[in-house]
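Whiteboard transcription, Tuesday session. T.W. wrote the structure tokens on the left side:
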């Protein structure tokens, strides 16, 4: 059911004024994002106990689903947290802004030196949210892509057409990226880190050819590699 709904929504999204590139967050994803925001705002270290991430998520979700203000939700259902109303409202604003931006990779580092043309390519790609990078054989497209990932500092899923290309990417990642977890989804074997991962297109599609594995929704950006 979930796979069919996902496909149907993407196919007909434009008819309900919805972006077909939407992401789907489950409760765990939402709570993890809220926890990240809490820490960035210093709200996890208050002297008086701040509500847990699950409670904050419930408050924000109920506010959205009932079209009621967060203040009203807290007053009616969570009066013990009235002192934190303003802070929770700030989290809700930041949550809405970051909901589709992926998870930050603040410590990721690129261990390499780019050639002049590679550096120009990275600079040009950083100016856009989306783009197509085409270069000749021997340019160093994989290294350029890894440098871009390190610059953006957002969790990334690298998509390739076959296992051989996936293994090449994984080898380059080990050489050029540090301070980041690396995983893969190859041949049905799921070892995803949700930081920097490599997967084949086939591995993301279920056996019935309709369902897309929900893992793809948990990344801030996708890097699709093709060798022509």
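and on the right, the sequence the group agreed on:
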């Amino acid at each position: 059911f979930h796979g069919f709904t996902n496909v149907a929504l993407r196919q007909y999204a434009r008819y309900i004024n919805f972006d077909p590139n939407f992401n789907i967050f489950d409760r765990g994803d939402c709570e993890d994002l809220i926890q990240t925001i809490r820490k960035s705002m210093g709200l996890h270290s208050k002297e008086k106990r701040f509500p847990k991430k699950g409670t904050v998520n419930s408050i924000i979700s109920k506010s959205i689903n009932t079209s009621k203000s967060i203040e009203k939700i807290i007053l009616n259902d969570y009066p013990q947290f009235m002192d934190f109303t303003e802070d929770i409202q700030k989290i809700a604003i930041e949550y809405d802004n970051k909901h589709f931006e992926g998870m930050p990779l603040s410590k990721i580092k690129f261990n390499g030196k780019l050639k002049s043309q590679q550096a120009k390519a990275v600079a040009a790609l950083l100016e856009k949210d989306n783009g197509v990078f085409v270069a000749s054989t021997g340019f160093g497209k994989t290294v350029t892509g890894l440098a871009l990932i390190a610059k953006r500092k957002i969790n990334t899923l690298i998509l390739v057409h076959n296992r051989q290309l996936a293994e090449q990417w994984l080898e380059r990642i080990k050489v050029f990226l540090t301070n980041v977890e690396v995983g893969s989804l190859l041949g049905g074997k799921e070892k995803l880190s949700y930081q920097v991962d490599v997967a084949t297109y086939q591995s993301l599609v279920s056996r019935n050819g309709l369902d897309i594995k929900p893992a793809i929704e948990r990344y801030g950006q996708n890097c699709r590699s093709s060798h022509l």
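Someone added at the bottom: Strands lie at 109-110, 156-160, 177-178, 182-186, 189-191, 196-200, 221-224.
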